[in-house]
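Write out the 3D structure for:
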Amino acid sequence: MEARFFQKDIETMRRPDIEALQLERLRRMVDYCYNNVPFYHERLGAAGITSGDKIKVLSDVQYIPFTTKDDIRDNYPFGMLAVPMKDIVRIHAEAFARNAASRRVLEKAGFALEGTLRRSVYKNGEMLDSCIYALVREEAP
């Protein structure tokens, strides 16, 4: 059988080349988050990471602070945006139909329920309904 690749040039790289690419992309992502997302600017700065240049090797990923569930809960969605709301057309979100707490968070943030996908997600041996929410720029608080 013939080998199939999505990005053959990347998927067939030698290990040192893959690690160099990963390091470059990690540095770029750290720079982007630090410069564009207030939450990550504060969090990375507190950890002493003020640019991607602070990441010297891949194992330096250990110095990047974790984003916790409370961080998401306390800052979602507007405190996590990387661009101004005026530049956003739509924010999509999804919550399990039976997860009333998550649905309330979305509704409190101004998201509108667009519909329910019945039996659309398989989790822990059962099919669950999923509620689709959206916030469009014109309706953002």
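The chain has a mean pLDDT of 94.
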